[in-house]
UniProtKB/TrEMBL annotation, chain A:
It comes from the Bacteria. GO terms for cellular component: plasma membrane. Residues 7-258 form the ABC transporter domain. It is a peripheral membrane protein. It comes from Thermohalobaculum xanthum. It is found in: Cell inner membrane. InterPro entries: AAA+_ATPase, ABC_Ni/Peptide_Import, ABC_transporter-like_ATP-bd, ABC_transporter-like_CS, Oligopep_ABC_C, P-loop_NTPase. The keyword ATP-binding applies. This is ABC transporter ATP-binding protein.
Automatic annotation (TrEMBL), chain B:
This is ABC transporter permease. Residues 114-323 form the ABC transmembrane type-1 domain. Its main location: membrane. It is a multi-pass membrane protein. It comes from Thermohalobaculum xanthum. The keyword Metal-binding does not apply.
Length: 333, 337
């Protein structure tokens, strides 16, 4: 667990600039990913999870998106400063990406084989025959039956779950060190979701890559992650080992998220719990705690300054004034 | 696919029969007199005899079916005989569709006129497509750039200014003021050597450019819109995330998808080539199909107009089918089984 980080993000800031106003989508996000580890990234819709991860590989359309500050260190290179050619060598080669919606993420007019062979031929320089052989192996790896024959099929001939398997195969094609999965199971129904989760667990065992798993489903994270970061309003508000987070959620937002989960045992509650309100849309960098408006423990200080991450115990940090060493209010939480 | 094509061709037969009836009926109902252009000294009873000799005394139904027989059976047989040198049946006395004005077979007139139209109008269409597709691609990829703004402006001009204006404008500039290009297309010109080839190119420049501008404006807008639709699709992000070059992303992934609707537009525009650009041919004195149609209408040459209009109808039905088949080839999601 203490191995060196493969991916290190430091102070990342991404802004969507339109002529009239700027939306601050990622605000000073820092995290690191260790070799072979699975990092869960949780948060509501609009909390900046996907935008953060797409900023890493500069996949957001620019304009309007621009990375204003920060470093993304991967294999000794800063991906933010890297030129286009260098970035292309990282995309698909060093870092694989799986997107949310498998129905639209594959090109409808090319065969699955063609799309799977593209990164193999581009990055590994394989010829057509070798690439085809490897592509069939990859389809077999992600559990697609009769892979050789299915290479010549088009995406519309696959079901949603099968397409997501294909997407995973494409992301893993060049044996990347890091796999970023952006809500890969959100668009799938629950049984298929479970199959994909099993598949990723299994692939991690076999291939040993580090995984960033973006989701809004705390249940999923509990099942597969080693460490978790919780995001809110484009910031990391809590960071912990997975057991520590579930045993001792510290940030009020994390607690609120956990309370929204219906339990399977015990008496059935009258209603499902929700967090009232919406995540804010930030038109300026946050000057106060962005969760203040929805927080049950809000006090004056929350509206005066934005809390940094305070380490509660080693390896567990939360961005809340109540978690600061001098507050002494930790017991309240 | 072959079964589908065959079925569509069979369905086309009743469609075309219905169209032929409508064309025939419309032109027959329209008030016109083939003898109206003859000298006024001809007495009315002689005029009546001329009309009867043209077959106008027969009932409508008889005339329709006779025309149908001539066009559908006699003319194809005649073409077949000319190509193969065979003699099928009584080919000497087979009745052909005759022009009332010139008394020569209509099909022969069309065959005479077709090369000019195909050269000038066809070339302009090819040029339009060759220009429009890259312009559309670049305009979409660099949306709102200077290139896109200029492209949009020129397209709007080309789209909204009629060819009779751009044609005359070019004539005034390049023929009258500068004297670089001839304003009249010389059909009798034969390309024999380099100089005559240069002359041919010179006389083709203005008519083709006028038509190319109008066509390219339209096609480039379609291309641009289609590219813009596709550039924001999720699969484009996937292609970029795979580490592909931007050129591959745009020219392979996006272009292939964007071409699907545009190819349909291009294919459906092809019949207009054969239809000739009536106005442009008129301005530059290209004696092609379009001009033939005008002459036919002015002279109340009903058989000529009927035949030409019906040929256009056949081409439109045919290219509709071709467009659908190309669509099926480009888009694997469409299967005709």
């Amino acid at each position: 667990m203490n191995s060196a980080p493969v991916l290190e993000v430091d102070g990342l800031k991404t802004v969507f600039g339109t002529r009239a106003l700027a939306i601050h989508a990622v605000n000073d996000v820092s995290f690191s990913l260790r070799e072979g580890e699975l990092l869960g990234v949780v948060g509501e819709s609009g909390s900046g999870k996907s935008v953060t991860m797409m900023s890493l590989l500069r996949l957001l359309p620019s304009p309007p998106a621009r990375i204003e500050a920060g470093r993304v260190m991967f294999e000794g290179q800063d991906l933010v400063q890297l030129d286009d050619a260098g970035l292309r060598r990282v995309r698909g080669r060093g870092i694989g990406f799986v997107f949310q919606d498998p129905m639209t993420s594959l090109n409808p007019v090319f065969t699955v084989g063609f799309q799977l062979m593209e990164p193999l031929r581009t990055h590994l320089g394989l010829d057509r025959k070798a690439a085809r052989k490897r592509a069939a192996e990859l389809l077999a790896l992600v559990g697609i039956p009769s892979p050789e024959a299915r290479l010549d099929d088009y995406p519309h001939q696959f079901s949603g779950g099968m397409r997501q398997r294909v997407m995973i195969a494409i992301a893993l094609a060049c044996d990347p060190k890091v796999l970023i999965a952006d809500e890969p199971t959100t668009a799938l129904d629950v049984t298929i979701q479970a199959q994909i989760l099993e598949l990723v667990k299994d692939l991690r065992r076999k291939l040993g890559m580090a995984v960033v798993w973006i989701t809004h489903d705390l249940g999923v994270v509990a099942g597969i992650a080693d460490r978790v970061i919780v995001m809110y309003a484009g910031q990391v508000v809590e960071r912990a080992e997975v057991e520590a987070l579930y045993e001792n959620p510290t940030h009020p937002y994390t607690r609120a998220l956990m309370e929204t989960l219906p339990g399977v045992d015990g008496a059935r509650g009258q209603r499902l719990r929700t967090i009232a309100g919406q995540p804010p849309i930030l038109t300026a960098p946050p000057a106060a705690c962005p969760f203040a408006a929805r927080c049950a423990h809000v006090h004056d200080r929350c509206r005066e300054a934005n809390p940094p991450l305070f380490e509660v115990v080693p390896g567990h940090a939360a961005a809340c004034w109540l978690a600061s060493p001098e507050s002494g209010a930790r017991n309240v939480l | 696919m072959a079964r589908y094509a065959l079925r569509r061709l069979l369905i086309a037969i009743p469609t075309l029969l219905a169209i032929s009836f409508i064309i025939f009926a419309l032109l027959d109902l329209a008030p016109s007199d083939p003898t109206a252009n003859l000298p006024l000294t001809i007495p009315p009873e002689v005029r009546e005899k001329i009309r009867l000799s043209l077959g106008m005394g027969e009932p409508f139904v008889v005339r329709y079916f006779k025309w149908l027989e001539q066009f559908m059976v006699n003319e194809p047989l005649n073409v077949l005989e000319q190509w193969t040198g065979w003699t099928i049946g009584d080919s000497e006395n087979r009745l052909r569709v005759l022009s009332w004005a010139t008394r020569s077979p209509v099909v022969d007139l069309i065959v005479e006129r077709l090369p000019q139209t195909l050269w000038v109008v066809g070339m302009s269409y090819v040029i339009a497509v060759v220009i429009a597709v890259p312009i559309g691609v670049i305009s979409a990829y660099r949306q709102y750039s200077l290139f896109d703004q200029i492209g949009t402006f020129i397209s709007m001009l080309g789209f909204s200014i009629p060819t009779f204006f751009t044609g005359l404008l070019l004539i005034v500039i390049f023929s009258v003021w500068l004297g670089w290009l001839p304003s009249i297309y010389d059909t009798t010109h034969v390309v024999r050597d380099w100089d005559s080839f240069v002359f041919q190119v010179k006389q083709m420049i203005m008519p083709t450019m006028v038509l190319a501008l109008a066509n390219a404006s339209q096609i480039s807008r379609f291309m641009r819109a289609s590219m813009l639709d596709n550039l924001t699709q999720d699969y484009v992000r996937t292609a970029r995330a795979k580490g592909l070059r931007e050129r591959v992303v745009v020219l392979t992934h996006v272009l292939r998808n964007s071409l699907i609707p545009v190819v349909t537009v291009i294919a459906l525009g092809v019949p207009t080539i054969f239809g000739g650009a009536i106005i442009t041919e008129q301005i530059f004195r290209v004696n092609g199909i379009g001009q033939l149609l005008i002459i036919g209408i002015e002279g109340a040459d009903i058989p000529l107009v009927q035949t030409l209009t019906f040929i256009f109808a056949i081409l439109i039905v045919l290219f509709n089918l071709i467009a659908d088949l190309i669509y099926g080839m480009l888009d694997p999601r469409i299967r005709y089984d």
